[in-house]
Amino acid sequence: MPILEVSGLSKRFGTVEVLKGISFSLEKGHSLAIIGSSGSGKTTLLRCLNFLEKPDSGRITVQGETLFDAGDARTQAEQEIRKKRLNFGLVFQAFNLFPQYTVLKNITLARELLEKESKKTTGRAAVVKEIEAEALALLAQMGLTGKEKAYPHELSGGQQQRVAIARALALQPKILCFDEPTSALDPELTGEVLRVVRGLAQRKTTMVIVTHEMAFARDVADHVIFMDEGQVVEEGPPHQVFGSPKEERTRQFLARYSSEN
Amino acid sequence: MSTIVSRLVDSFGLNVQLFFLTLLFSLPLGLVIALCAMSRFKPLALVTKTFVWIIRGTPLMLQVIIIFFAPGLLDFGAPWGSGASARFTAATIAFIINYACYFSEIFRGGIQGVPLGQTEAGQVLGMTRTQIFFKVTLLQVIKRILPAMSNEVITLIKDTSLARIISIKEIIMMAQEYTAQGLIWPLFSTGIFFLVFVGLLTVLFARMEKKLDYFRV
Questions:
Q1: pLDDT band at residue A79, thresholds of 50, 70 and 90?
Q2: pLDDT value of position A121
Q3: CA A41 to CA A46: how far, in whole Å?
Q4: Using an 8 Å Cβ cutoff, are A74 and A67 in contact?
Q5: Would you call B142 an interface residue with chain A, using a CB distance cutoff of 8 Å?
Q6: Given an 8 Å threshold on Cβ–Cβ distance, is A100 in contact with B140?
Q7: B127 touches chain A (CB under 8 A)
């Protein structure tokens, strides 16, 4: 059974139909790359998965549990949505680290708040210690040992994005989403972020990656979806989508891309 | 002369009292008004914005007069009590409402100035709206609005003199009694009181800004 199943997802903003019945599924431990030109609906799709946008129709299922069903109001209660979001992690294009907190606090804050809510009074200090130890381990994994006391503005864009990845991982989401994680970075800084994502793929982290880095998508993803005008135009294993695309629109897109780069 | 000075000092106590009481209540009230003005419930936002327009659109001096006299004229009895304390209560309420409205606009600007990405980052990390506001947004808002707030707070201490319109014997009204007796220097000297007080405020705000210097927004 796939870990994630999306079916018939549609979303319109006013008169613009941004998503027109998107369906796909994702196996546990696999990484899915979503490619397509700007305005094709990739980001909106990720935002729907993370409940930052509410789809007009369609269904989102994780491990057999229906998290969202446009036809079922019970799946849309505000309180529920908060918990459901924790199935997913999201790494933003603009990092969106919290500027007033240290790197360590950025990573631990959400978990500490969740812990507080669970109303256990005993062993609070030990729990905080454990959360911090895990955060430090994540920082090491991101190649950022020694940066835990730094503030976001003291870091380069590439370092900030790696902290953002650690922050998302700290909540142990079932599916980690990336929204063009290197688009806001100087070219010389994209490598360090892509290396980290590649490492996550090797560790079999389930990921949905919206990206403009074609070589990276081809290399890392288990499955590729090409989107255009709110629809899935073509999907398949990377060697097929990149190597011998069946659809004319895919070919045109890839040709445009390789001529630009 | 020393009696004159000590009477001026005593009367400036009223200005300072009015200043602190206004701050104490108008800051939280201003935040509530700002949140109402930004409410997704349109009627509430509309009523709030109209209220802010009326308060910011009319002189504070007039508001002090209305708050003080209106209950009696409308036959509501004497909600402010009687005598000097009634006048001071009425003035304080007028000041609180007036400054809360000005503060609310500063708060609104500060809150809307925080990038939406900050809220969304909190949301995808499973935080509640309240947690996001207090743990993520608020400090960034405070940092952004400090310069505008210091302006407003400096204006407040000088505005407290308006309370004399309902015979509250604050420092300028006190000094004017001496002017009536042909003695002008007490009135001129009141400027020194305000200067020193504003000097302290300026130092205080500079410290707060420095304290929040450790991060960038």
A1: confident
A2: 67
A3: 9
A4: no
A5: no
A6: yes
A7: yes
Using 50, 70 and 90 to split pLDDT, how confident is the model at A228? very high
Residues B136, A51: Cα–Cα separation, whole Å: 19
pLDDT of residue B176 exceeding 90: yes
Chain A hits for B120, CB-CB cut-off 8 Å, are 52, 92, 96
- Using a CB-CB distance cutoff of 8 angstroms, which residues of chain A are in contact with residue B140? 99-100
pLDDT of residue A72: 84
The CA–CA distances, whole Å, from B73 to B66, B69, B70, B86 equal 10, 6, 5, 15
pLDDT digits (tens, 9 = 90+) for B13-65: 999 999 999 999 999 999 999 999 999 999 999 999 999 999 999 999 999 99
User: d(Cα B80, Cα B74) in Å, to the nearest integer?
Assistant: 14
pTM: 0.87
Interchain contact, A96 vs B127, CB within 8 Å? no
Structural domains in chain A, sorted by start: 4-99+157-260 (3.40.50.300)
Asked if the C-beta of B139 comes within 8 angstroms of chain A's C-beta atoms, the answer is yes
A180: nearest Cα among A139, A206, A208: A208
Contacts of A147 (CB under 8 A, 6+ apart): A103, A139, A155, A159, A163
- Round to whole Å and give the CA distance between A177 and A95: 13
- How many residue pairs from chains A and B have C-beta atoms closer than 8 A? 60
B217 at interface of A, judged by CB pairs closer than 8 A: yes
CA–CA dist A73, A85 (Å, integer) = 17
Q: Do B128 and A94 touch (CB under 8 A)?
A: no
∠ at Cα B68 (B63, B72), nearest 5°? 130
Q: Cite the DSSP H helix spans in chain A.
A: 42-49, 78-85, 103-117, 124-141, 157-169, 187-202, 214-220, 238, 248-260
Superfamily of domain B2-214, CATH level 4: MetI-like (1.10.3720.10)
Q: How far does CA A135 lie from the centroid of its chain?
A: 19
Residue A50 to residue B136, Cβ atoms within 8 A = no
How high is the mean pLDDT of chain A? 92
A97·B124 Cβ contact <8 A? no
- Nearest chain A residue to B132 by CA distance is A110
End-to-end Cα, chain A, rounded Å: 38
Q: Which two tokens stand for residue A223?
A: 């499955």
Q: Which of residues 51-80 of A touch B (CB under 8 A)?
A: 51-52
